[in-house]
């Protein structure tokens, strides 16, 4: 059996192209499982996984929990609100207390970039990064690539435009790494204030014109404005942002060829996407949600073999 080259999934930057293809190939097998009448396999029957979330999450947390249960793992859920973290307990003490209950794997979301890396150096359990601040969100990038494969047959050679709040997005960074390792071309598009200064070092194209980006790409991955991470105002108003960077079904229909529309969620309808665009035939947003369970099953299963 093929194995990953890493013990932890901390970021796409740490993965090889072979790792990515192994995860996506395994996810394809698990997608068949979750579409069967009996959606469960005993693959992780003796494994206990703790979902340790220090930041709010709906889709990612539910997706991981469902993936774990589909694999027959025992699941423990931890939320920072109402926990001893509020009393001043350190991250390491919190996790070590969870591990003392014989937990084998930690799935963690944290607001501080690098928190999963810090943990992985100090504990024996496998660590899966479910999002660390504005740094990386590896399973989202993997499920996005899986969704592109599903729709277009391959990621290599495709043009993918990532549109929106690039500066505060961990999804953008993970997607850039993941797509480039598979041979895709990447463009980022957004207001100048929401494009990081280092972006040119990553070998991506940059545009500030959403119509130019849509005309260039095969796939548009649209990101929301992350107001909760913004300490200052980066543009005058959401209305103005929507006027210049919002995407409607009319804009998509006017393109000279069909493109695929993606969004990691949650969607701010009427800001980055109109409802008719989000719900149109161009969109594979709900497919991304379904694919997320299969990809996370693959990640957990492969790490458990390490």
Task: Kindly list the characteristics that best describe this protein.
4-stranded parallel β-sheet; Rossmann fold; alpha/beta; Asp_carbamoyltransf; 9 strands; pyrimidine biosynthesis; transferase; Asp/Orn_carbamoyltranf_P-bd; 11 helices
Give the SSE map.
Elements: H1 17-34, E1 48-53, H2 59-70, E2 74-79, H3 91-99, E3 105-110, H4 115-120, E4 126-132, H5 138-152, E5 159-163, H6 170-181, E6 185-189, E7 205-207, H7 210-216, E8 219-222, H8 238-245, H9 249-253, E9 260-262, H10 275-278, H11 285-304
Instruction: For the largest sheet, list the strands in their spatial order.
Output: 7-6-5-8-9
Instruction: Please bin the fraction of helical residues.
Output: 25-40%
CA-based shape: globular
| CATH homolog superfamily of the largest domain | Aspartate/ornithine carbamoyltransferase
What's the domain count? Answer: 2
Family: Belongs to the aspartate/ornithine carbamoyltransferase superfamily. ATCase family.
EC number: 2.1.3.2
Keywords: Pyrimidine biosynthesis, Transferase
Catalytic activity: carbamoyl phosphate + L-aspartate = N-carbamoyl-L-aspartate + phosphate + H(+)
């Amino acid at each position: 059996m093929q194995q990953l080259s890493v013990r932890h999934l901390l970021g796409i930057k740490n993965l090889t192209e072979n790792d990515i293809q192994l995860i996506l190939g395994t996810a394809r097998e698990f997608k068949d499982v979750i579409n069967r009448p009996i959606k469960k396999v005993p693959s992780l029957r003796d494994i206990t996984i703790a979902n340790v979330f220090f930041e709010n999450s709906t889709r990612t947390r539910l997706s991981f929990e469902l993936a774990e249960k589909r694999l027959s793992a025992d699941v423990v859920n931890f939320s920072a609100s109402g926990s001893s973290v509020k009393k001043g307990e350190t991250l390491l003490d919190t996790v070590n207390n969870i591990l003392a209950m014989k937990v084998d794997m930690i799935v963690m979301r944290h607001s501080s970039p690098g928190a999963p890396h810090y943990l992985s150096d100090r504990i024996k359990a496998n660590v899966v990064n479910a999002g660390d601040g504005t740094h990386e969100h590896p399973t989202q990038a993997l499920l996005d690539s899986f969704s592109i494969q599903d729709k277009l047959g391959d990621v290599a050679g495709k043009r993918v435009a990532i549109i929106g709040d690039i500066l505060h997005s961990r999804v953008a960074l993970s997607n850039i790494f993941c797509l480039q390792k598979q041979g895709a071309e990447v463009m980022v598009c957004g207001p100048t204030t929401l494009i990081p200064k280092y972006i040119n070092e990553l070998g991506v194209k940059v545009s500030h014109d959403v119509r130019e980006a849509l005309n260039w790409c095969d796939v548009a991955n649209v990101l929301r404005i992350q107001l909760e991470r913004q300490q200052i105002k980066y543009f005058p108003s959401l209305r103005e942002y929507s006027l210049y960077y919002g995407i409607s079904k009319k804009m998509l229909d006017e393109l000279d060829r069909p493109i695929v529309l993606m969004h990691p969620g949650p969607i701010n309808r009427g800001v980055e996407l109109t409802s008719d665009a989000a719900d149109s035939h161009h969109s594979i947003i709900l497919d991304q949600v379904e694919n997320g369970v299969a990809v996370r099953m693959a990640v957990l299963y492969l790490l458990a073999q390490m």
